[in-house]
Amino acid sequence: ARQTTRAVGAETMRGRVPGPNGLHPLTDLDGNARLQCYEDRVKAAFDRIVPVLKQISALQHESDFEQHAQSIARAELGFDLPEHMLADAWVTQLDLRRLFAWCVFETYRRMADDFFANDPLGGREVHAFDRFIQDCGFHQLDVTPCADGRLAHAISYVLRLPFGAVRRKPYAGGLFDVENTVSKWGEVELGRFREGVPNTADAPTRYLKTVIYHYSSVDPHHQGCAAHGSNDAAAAQAALDRLLAFRQSVENGFCCGASVALLLIGMDTDTDAIRAHVPDGEGRMDLTQSVDAIKVYAITRDLEPTAARARVAELVKAHAPATADPGMLRLVARLIENNLSQIDYVRQVHGGRYADAGHAERFVGVGIGFEEIQLRNLTYFAYLYTVEEGAADLDVGRKIFGGLNVSRGLPIPIVIRFDYHGGVPGARERAATRCRRLDAALADRFADLDDRGLLHRLLVVRDSDAGTGIEVVGSSLDAQMSGGH
Amino acid sequence: ARQTTRAVGAETMRGRVPGPNGLHPLTDLDGNARLQCYEDRVKAAFDRIVPVLKQISALQHESDFEQHAQSIARAELGFDLPEHMLADAWVTQLDLRRLFAWCVFETYRRMADDFFANDPLGGREVHAFDRFIQDCGFHQLDVTPCADGRLAHAISYVLRLPFGAVRRKPYAGGLFDVENTVSKWGEVELGRFREGVPNTADAPTRYLKTVIYHYSSVDPHHQGCAAHGSNDAAAAQAALDRLLAFRQSVENGFCCGASVALLLIGMDTDTDAIRAHVPDGEGRMDLTQSVDAIKVYAITRDLEPTAARARVAELVKAHAPATADPGMLRLVARLIENNLSQIDYVRQVHGGRYADAGHAERFVGVGIGFEEIQLRNLTYFAYLYTVEEGAADLDVGRKIFGGLNVSRGLPIPIVIRFDYHGGVPGARERAATRCRRLDAALADRFADLDDRGLLHRLLVVRDSDAGTGIEVVGSSLDAQMSGGH
Ligand SMILES: [Zn+2]
Ligand SMILES: [Zn+2]
Ligand SMILES: [Zn+2]
Ligand SMILES: [Zn+2]
Description:
5-stranded mixed β-sheet, homodimer, 6-stranded mixed β-sheet, alpha/beta, globular, binds zinc ion, 11 strands
């Protein structure tokens, strides 16, 4: 009831008649339809698993159990279950934990195959965006969202950017690794000097590092950023501090005027609306000053598209420091405009605010890569090389899935992933070795869960140069699987 | 008896009267004296610890024990012992394990302070060598010796290079991390493009990556490289494969003719004599073909210095492929010539072959840094960021010290070290955090030792930009130490 009242209030406040379908004039209707189709399809595939397994479980002592179970699985999930997992059900019990993990991994695998084969989000069409950001004065966009699954769709949905044009490195609380980022910055600079990619080094463009912190407008004290105890101000300040440390590292470590551009963005995980803290001419950002997409939406929703676009630009300028860089203003105006479509997406598809205000991730992703993860609350994703260094991020993940899965008796499914450069000799084998090492370390750190069958891992590598899909190199389900045959 | 016979045989074979003091005409007598002084001084400091503690232990129930012990320590070790460690001896037993670890760490700290304050090896005089290698066609020398402590003096003693001019990254078995090295290569390239350091990017010089594998002429089947089961051929082949993988990574990962130079060196850990596998014009190296310093020594020992130097160059050319790069030949000739001094050093100081043919390291070093470790068999040093990734190297270290220390009831002293760039904000604190994380992981992995007081750690950071010494940020001895006060 409260929500309805608030929604009506908002409509009243806006006053005039809204655009077609009640949406913002700048909203990308086709884009929203395509994104919705993809989100529905993928999430439905994951969400069918538990009901189907319940149904199958109820049949496990029937005489034609295996045939019956397979026909249900084929019809509902679209794939067969592993025969040996069903074969023993008559003598013992169906091992539903293992079957659940197997189904999650199979669903993930099919999703990833589709993603790399068909590019359902069109994220590899990067040329126009690359040109645009270079016109704005930037040659690389590097974004760190929080590892929180509620930000996993930040690039493709919230900001509506082609994922192929953005380096994404999620860290819990947005606390990216400064040294690692300086090293990535150096790689990009070297590409400019050596190969003129993405542009030549004499072009007056900068590397743009962005952090997205987050908060919850519906339940700010409980559904904010777990890494910062749902303290929004602390989350924003920590992200800002990390950004400034990165810039200072580049400036101190390299002379000849080396520098980088910074942008801090906040995101409401209930509405997906963003706010941007535009830096002034000296690169300073003010946490109390921002351009808020939700306000821009309200102010511009009744204008014609051309007028709305002009008004967005004016509003960005008006809410930014007077000395802000014009290129940065153009980029932020684009991000705000893109975000208007997402605000409408949440309104159309989710009634203005997500029903899953909290965590609802389907699996955990750890490692390096995961370009295919572009959906909200699908994956808790921690960018890490080792359990030792990523322990804090993993413990947050464990806590989340303790509530989501373990409390219901279901295992935590973890996809371990390392991308590699196929052109580098031995890189595939080293990536597979990294997977196995991380797998052993996870099993060790979470031995209490593993011992009870409450932790399963799928080991995956991918040649990021080849543009092909993922390759499964192992699974915690394997040993017993082969034993069953 | 066998050794004497062999030595006489060698003298006879050489035939003519040798140079002054029976040494090679190109041997750097002053250098040898300075190096011997340093080696004797440092090792004696470590080797006095056990006898002094035995002496002190025998006195622990005397009435004036504390005063007596301190006066012995001051006289023999040059420093006082921590009072609280002595104070409890009358009521319980003197905790000699803790006292031993404390003395090793204190001796290490004093050695490091001396090293950074006084540059006893003159390793920061890099200009002449930098010029020389650039004349040879290289702008950076990056050397991976095995982590084995018997190669820890490879740069300053065996090759007689200024350590400040060489990037050293030891890995067990010489199996360096390809991706990490590509990233370091990129950093150097960027410095050339951006800042003209060490030279400008248009200079036709290359990054030279070198691996030093090792073998034992005295006991080849037991005292070779532990990481390769004392199989010399396997050690050499594995090092070569890793070098080729690195070059291919650079060539495949970067276009416009990016490449690197490679050099494979073998080292006899009994005599410190090297052999160099000089690449041909295409960069191919042959494991069966090498320039052997021990043979060059024998052939040139009776010549005048100028003639000897010319002959060294001829011999290098004669034992290298016909198409070898002239700059590479010059560099190898210099390394061989330098090594002649070390062959004589081992003859003068150690009777031609080290008495400690096997492991005799005094402590373990893990982490990033350790410029001050330049002595043979002082330190088993593993270049690593995490226990998880460095587990193989650490397990070798544990095995070695199981024999050296644990079998005698002594703990394994481990120095955990991370260098940082002082110009980078927060870098010192992140280095200290890395130390603490690695410390916890070590204590966890080797909990069986730690529980018995057989594993102690000193946590150390250093600002590698400032040129100052080390900073101790913690120790496994701390908690109980502060409790004792
Ligand atoms: Zn968060
Ligand atoms: Zn400069
Ligand atoms: Zn070795
Ligand atoms: Zn090119």
